[in-house]
Design goal:
The complex is a heterodimer of chains A (about 280) and B (about 325).
Chain A (H helix, E strand, L loop, with lengths): L2 E12 L6 E12 L3 E5 L6 H9 L6 E6 L2 E2 L9 E2 L11 H12 L6 H14 L15 H14 L4 E5 L7 H18 L2 E5 L3 H7 L2 E5 L7 E6 L8 H5 L2 H17 L8 H14 L1
Parallel strand pairs in A: 3-8, 3-9, 6-7, 7-8
Antiparallel strand pairs in A: 1-2, 1-4, 4-5, 9-10
Chain B lengths: L1 H50 L2 E2 L2 E2 L3 H39 L16 H32 L1 H14 L4 H15 L9 H27 L3 H9 L4 H39 L4 H11 L4 H30 L7
Antiparallel strand pairs in B: 1-2
Helix pairs in contact in B: 2-10, 3-4, 3-6, 3-8, 3-9, 4-6, 5-6, 5-8, 6-8, 8-9, 8-10, 9-10
Classes of the chains: A alpha/beta (about 280), B mainly alpha (about 325).
Pfam family, one (chain A): ABC_tran
GO molecular function (chain A): ATP binding
Subcellular location (chain A): Cell membrane
């Protein structure tokens, strides 16, 4: 299979009053069509920066991203983003939020009735058809994230970018959402890049886990192929030898090879403390 | 046994009804009783204070004198209306008579030019303030949106806004008057110059709070929502319509309420100083008149000015409730 998404030699400098801060250095990543890739690493390692560059929301200082033999220059619906905090427009209902995306992407391509069917199909896919006409303030956090995913899926993206999509949810809801995402992935077989700092989530969902080194000048440390057969069952895997081995590999990378040195950056230490608690 | 339980059930029911009634009464008294007490105390202090202040126009008017003047002002208004009707009736008769004698006569209808009554002045003031305010909103809200969207424009215009914001209407008025009389020259003007003067003064003073608040609201939209718009590649117009406007509506309305408050205060001052018709002119005329009732009539105007200012604010608030998607916030 040829490379579908090529992240090639990316450097990212952020300007600061003390001169440029090098967040990323020579990040290289090739992703095939239909692959589910997780980006994992300690907080502040630039995972989100990579995702934002692929989305086109940031411009890399050096290097570039090629999707389907076209260079990424600006944001666009073919690289739909699921944001960490759902980012639904609070004044629109679930249906209207998805509708905004569908109307924009399928302008002149779908008839009114086709659009309506497509919006309802996507909401059904994330099991939100029962609360289609509710405002975001009237539904729970997990439900909002489902609608956010439906909105991204409805754009029929070439690659789906997810920035810690379940990071703000409680553990039970998160597990439920992961199962839903696997179910959707079975059906649609999208190309996905997902940022996470949950080791179980990464192993359970991914075909490939990309582990990033600590910043500044973070880059891809190791890539782990996850060859567990699909469909995957959370409970069955809990006892599975391969699963636990993969899990241990990721933990080793995070806590032995890339142990976060706390006293480098005092202002960041309080954040990274509770983030690392989350990783375990 | 069953009768007893039934009885206790009923008692319980009554008890809960009673407690809900008591809490309702407590709430009602808080919402109604306390303001009534406040107003009563104020009226008592006012009448005591008024009694001990002697001016060259007699005693300072107490609440009773002011209430009497409300009645008098309303009667004057009615009397003036009767006069106006009589005038038009006479005019019609005269015209009809002349037509009978000479069928080729072109009928001239002249408007009644009697004194403007208190009610007329209120009406004039309301029309002026609304026109000035709407003109200000039509300029300030689009400008504010543009400034909020473009940090460059905001940086360029911010000093100008900050400097003009605290300028008193009294400083603008002479300039406005001169400019209007230089530029607004027409043999048959649609509206009077004095109306344009007050309107422009109101506009100049009420632009700024709306402009500042709108740009603040637009500049502080959640960056994730802006990113959603970028990913969807919404056109600038759709972006403003679907994301910017709904997100900044609360602050736009805050600006509108501040501006309308300013507009109303400015208008009274402008009318007083420039002899533009309206409540301000009424106050000034009564002051110049200097009769024994003048102060009571001015005080009546003060009450009306305050009441209208309050109602205008409530009106914008109601409008915000109707417009805003977030019913809990407004």
């Amino acid at each position: 299979m040829s490379t579908f998404l090529d992240i090639s030699n990316i450097d990212m400098d952020f300007p600061t009053p003390k001169g440029p801060f090098k967040a990323l250095k020579e990040v290289n990543l090739k992703i095939n069509k239909g692959e589910f890739v997780s980006l994992i690493g300690h907080s502040g390692c630039g995972k989100s920066t990579v995702l934002n560059i692929v989305a086109g929301l940031y411009q890399a200082t050096k290097g570039g991203v090629i999707l389907n033999s076209t260079e990424v220059a600006e944001p666009g619906p073919e690289r739909a983003v699921v944001f960490q905090n759902h980012s639904l427009l609070p004044w629109l209902t679930s249906y209207q939020n998805v509708e905004l995306a569908v109307k924009q992407v399928f302008k002149n391509k779908k008839s009114k009735a086709e659009m309506k069917d497509w919006i309802e199909y996507n909401l059904k896919l994330v099991h939100m058809d029962h609360a289609m006409h509710k405002l975001p303030s009237e539904i729970s956090g997990g439900m909002k994230q489902r609608v956010g995913i439906a909105r991204a899926l409805a754009m029929e993206p070439e690659v789906l970018l997810m920035d810690e999509p379940f990071g703000a949810l409680d553990a039970l809801t998160r597990a439920h959402m992961q199962d839903s995402l696997m179910e959707i992935q079975n059906e649609l077989n999208n190309t996905v890049i997902m940022i996470t700092h949950d080791v179980d989530e990464a192993v359970l969902l991914s075909d490939k886990i990309v582990m990033m080194t600590n910043g500044p000048a973070a880059t891809v440390g190791e890539i782990l192929d996850v060859n567990l057969p699909r469909p995957r069952e959370r409970l069955a895997l809990a006892e599975d030898k391969d699963y636990n081995h993969l899990r241990a590999e990721v933990l080793k990378f995070l806590y032995e090879k890339q142990r976060k040195v706390e006293n480098i950056n005092i202002s960041n230490s309080s954040i990274s403390n509770d983030e690392t608690a989350n990783v375990g | 046994m069953t009768t007893i339980t039934r009885l206790t059930d009923r008692l319980m029911l009554d008890k809960s009804k009673l407690t809900s009634l008591v809490s309702w009464m407590a709430q009602a008294s808080k919402a109604l009783l306390l303001p009534v007490i406040g107003i009563t105390v104020f009226l008592v202090i006012w009448s005591i204070a008024a009694n001990s202040i002697n001016t060259s126009l007699g005693k300072f008017p107490g609440p009773v004198a002011v209430a009497e003047q409300f009645g008098a002002l309303y009667q004057e208004h009615n009397a003036e209306r009767v006069k106006a009707e009589a005038f038009y009736e006479r005019q019609d008769k005269r015209n009809a008579a002349r037509l009978e004698v000479d069928p080729s006569y072109v009928v001239k209808v002249r408007a009644y030019t009697g004194k403007e009554t208190f009610v007329d002045q209120i009406f004039t003031s309301l029309v002026t303030v609304m026109s000035g305010f709407i003109l200000a909103a039509a300029i300030a809200i689009p400008m504010g949106i543009w400034m909020g969207l473009s940090p460059t424009l905001n940086a360029a215009l911010n000093p100008i806004v900050q400097i003009f914001k605290p300028v008193s209407p009294l400083a603008w008025l002479p300039l406005v008057t001169m400019v209007v009389s230089a530029l607004y020259v027409s043999p048959d003007p649609m509206v009077s110059k004095s109306f344009i003067n007050s309107l422009l003064t109101v506009t100049l003073c009420s632009l700024w709070p709306m402009m500042i608040n709108t740009s603040l609201g637009v500049a502080n939209i959640d960056s994730d929502l802006v990113n959603v718009s970028r990913v969807l590649r919404l056109s600038p117009l759709t972006h403003i319509q679907k994301i910017v406007l709904p997100a900044s509506i609360p602050l736009i309305f805050t600006g509108m309420r501040l501006s309308l408050g300013v507009a109303w205060m400015v208008l009274i001052a402008a009318e007083m100083l420039a002899q533009n018709p309206g409540l301000g002119k009424f106050v000034w005329d009564e002051f110049q008149n200097g009769s024994s009732e003048s102060l009571a009539r001015i005080m009546a105007a003060v009450v009306v000015i305050g009441l209208i200012g309050f109602l205008l604010d409530r009106g914008v608030l109601a409008l915000q409730r109707w417009f805003s998607w977030d019913k809990s916030k407004s």
